[in-house]
């Protein structure tokens, strides 16, 4: 019995080391490849948590902006003192708008067709320093409805960061617009 115990401990330790190394080699997000290319999640409407919406009333052509997070991200965000966990994926889907008078009121706005998607992936470790789509703790991507599998962002500083400067203090995300992140 005593001889079996040390052998068991060695085997268990090897298994743990092998498991740990396999985890380290794996991508930290299923939407990011080894070069840092971000792909667009496709099942987010059905399976992800809805965080909130934005409408720009001064420019209704800019559309309805609906924002989603992977399952569990909101809970980890709250449990982590308001910090997004490494590997968290957020997606903002921008839809065109229309309006019409309805029995509920005049000029009621509603969303129609998808125009584009923005995808952000949290990267606490700075994994892709040589990729211009990564920086300030995030990977940044943009996909147009005409070709939803191609990321058209070239450089996050040129294509993305400008809109996020007012949210720098909240990790570049407008968290105050997402009730699920702020609920108790």
Concise synopsis of the structure shown:
The protein is an alpha+beta fold and 184 residues long.
Our Rg estimate from Cα atoms comes to 21 Å
Number of domains: 1
CATH architecture annotation name: 3-Layer(bba) Sandwich
Provide the succession of SSEs: HHEEHEEEEHHH
Classify the beta-strand content into a percent band.
25-35%
Query: Total number of β-strand segments?
Result: 6
Per CATH, the superfamily is Cytochrome P460
How far do the termini sit from each other? 52 Å
What is the CATH fold-level name? Chalcone isomerase
What summary fits the major beta sheet? 6 strands, antiparallel
Helix content: 10-25%
Please, how many helices? 6
Describe this structure in words.
- The chain is built from six helices and six strands; from the N terminus they run ααββαββββααα.
- With 184 residues, it is an alpha+beta fold.
- It has one domain: 3-Layer(bba) Sandwich (Chalcone isomerase).
- Strands 1-2-3-4-6-5 form a six-stranded antiparallel β-sheet.
- It is globular and about 50 Å long.
Question: How would you describe this structure in keywords?
Answer:
single chain, 184 residues, alpha+beta, Chalcone isomerase, six-stranded antiparallel sheet, 6 helices, 6 strands, 24% helix, 29% strand
């Amino acid at each position: 019995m005593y001889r079996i115990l040390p052998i068991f401990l060695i085997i268990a330790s090897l298994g743990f080391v092998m498991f740990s190394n396999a985890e380290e080699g794996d991508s930290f997000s299923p939407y990011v490849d080894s070069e840092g290319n971000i792909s667009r999640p496709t099942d987010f409407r059905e399976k992800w948590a809805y965080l909130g919406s934005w409408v720009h009333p001064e420019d209704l052509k800019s559309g309805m902006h609906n924002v989603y997070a992977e399952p569990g991200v909101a809970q980890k965000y709250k449990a982590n003192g308001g910090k997004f966990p490494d590997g968290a994926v957020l997606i903002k889907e921008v839809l065109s708008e229309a309006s019409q008078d309805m029995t509920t009121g005049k000029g009621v706005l509603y969303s129609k067709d998808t125009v584009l998607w923005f995808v952000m992936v949290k990267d606490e470790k700075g994994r892709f320093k040589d990729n211009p789509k990564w920086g300030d703790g995030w990977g940044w991507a943009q996909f147009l409805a005409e070709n939803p599998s191609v990321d058209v962002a070239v450089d996050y500083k040129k294509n993305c960061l400008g809109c996020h400067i007012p949210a720098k203090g909240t990790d570049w995300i407008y968290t105050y617009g997402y009730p699920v992140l702020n609920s108790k």
